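Tutorial handout. Part one gives the primary structure; part two gives the three-dimensional structure as tokens.
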Amino acid sequence: MAYLFNHRHFYEGLKEGKLLGLVCKSCGKYTVPAKICCAECGSTEIEAVQLSGKGKIKTYTVIRVAPEGFTPPYILAMVELEEGPWLMGNVEGCGTELSDAELIEKNVILGHKVHPPAVYSAGEVVSIAFFLE
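Part two.
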């Protein structure tokens, strides 16, 4: 079976300002990022779609010791997208001093950041970013 939609498509879409994922023709659930089958029911009857990129912060942590190419401290959050799946990314546009419980349930919109090649990467790195609405 060939991949309908792979991680390269996902990250290229991010760089164009699009959140690309899959919708299952069997159960109707969305999967982000790409997998070979539906994350909910395991069906391979899936198709690539563009998602809204809007969601709500469900949980987060402050990263104080970061991997190469990232400058700490920063907020890393799990966001529940309008379409249902959860996606992890950095929260941009607010300092870590604002990262108290009031961030939970805040509306965000998807963006991205491009980082230069790191020691263990095969080129530039694209990371998911969320911006407070």
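Part three, for discussion. The longest helix spans residues 7-15. Strands lie at 19-24, 30-31, 46-51, 54-63, 74-81, 86-92, 107-115, 125-132.
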